[in-house]
Structures are given as C-alpha cells and as structure tokens.
Amino acid sequence: MTGDSPRLLELRRRVQADPASIAFAQLAEECRRAGENDEAVGICRAGLNFHPDYLSARVTLGRALSELGRLDEAHAELFIVLNAAPDNLAANRAMAEVYQQRGQMPEALAHYKKALALAQHDPDLEHAVEKIENVVSPPPAPVKTDVPAVAIEDLFDFDTLLEQLGGRTQPKPEIPTPIDLAALVPSALDKVELPADATDPFALLERQLRDSEGQRAPDDPAVLAAKRERRVIAELEDWLAAIVMDRDNQASA
Q1: What pLDDT, on a 0 to 100 scale, did the predictor assign at position 26?
Q2: DSSP 130-187
C-alpha cells in the first residue's frame, strides 16, 4: 500500500512470511492508528486463531470494530479481555467508549472511572468522567436568592393606622334609664286621690291602704293585694333613699 511507513512495511513483511508470528498484533495496531480499521480487523482475527489469549491484540480488535460502528462485536471482544484482566486500562477505556456510543451512560461512566483510577491524572479521562457525570447526575439548579426585599412600609399603611389610632375615643358611659315609679305600681297610684296640699304621695298611699285594709276581712283578696302593694312601696322607698344617698356622696366627692 503506497504511503506506508517503513515500520508498517516491515511488519507486513514479517506477518506475510510467518502468519503465526506475534508481530500481527503490532501490525493490526499500526493499521488501526492509520485509519485502516477493516484491515486491522482482518489481521487480528487471523492472528488470534494462532494466539487466542493475546489480550492486547483482542483490545485492538475491539477498538477497530468500535470505530467501524460494529458495537456488539466490539463489546464481545472487550468483555473477553475484561473477564480475564479487569484492570486492563486499554480495555476499560475502549469498553467505556462502546457504552458511550450506545447511550448507556451509567455503564460508560463506571468504565471511565475505572480507567481513570488506573491511569492516574489522565486529562482526557478526567474530562470524559466530568462530562458524563453531568449527564448521569446533573448538578441541582441554583436556588434563586435575588428575591426583592419588602420594606415594612409596603406591608402597612402607617398614615391610615395612625389616623385610626388618633381618632379612637373612649366609649361613652351608659346612663341608666330612669325608673318609672308609676309603671311599677300603676294600680295603687291610680286609686289614691291626693289632696292638693299633699307632699308625700307614698305616705298618703300607705295611709289609704291601711284605712281600706281595716274595713275588710284579713283574708279578703283586696286586703292581701294591699299588703303586697305596701311591701312594694316600702322597697321602692328604700331603693330611692339609697339612690339619693349615693348621689349625695358623689356630689360631695
């Protein structure tokens, strides 16, 4: 093939001269790096018939198949390698690429991390791990903290509040309703005829009741009613006297 490097030509010559030579693995890898993946696959399969346990050649086969898009075949070859040598750096890296092309990101991330642990500070592997981690477990959205502050003046209308407080007045005391004495004992007061010069209607009413009571039997209903009315009048007199005394005390205070 024109344009081949002297090393590639020498490897071809050696493999052609001895198909069972282990030089096939180096020849296949040089072809893969040159982009000749179909040729690399053919050389690997031929050489693995003689050396099936040659793991580096199987890794080259798996990577060449992956670059050709034959992912299932590539996965099968790399699985054989990792089953025999789990810490094979090239196989873990190649398997991660296969899973990534399949869209199986968690599996790809696991193999990339394993490869990074074996490679130690490989920038390409670090970038691949970070990239896939953002796909598998994206960072949480930042919490917005730019909430506008609310001034207390916006919560309360202080002018209206002060106006209400300033205009508040104490409730006026309730003034008791005057008692209508005539409504309490209307029947007794209506029956009493007061002389023109009378000054104590209650005393006159009491005398009138006594006079009418003396003319009737003790068990006469009229007598009993008169006694009840007299008791009412006596209680009213006491109540009025108490009111007058209380008013006098307030006036002197």
Answers
A1: 95
A2: HHHHHHHSPPPPPPP--PPP--HHHH--HHHHHHHHHT--PPPPPPPPPP-HHHHSHH
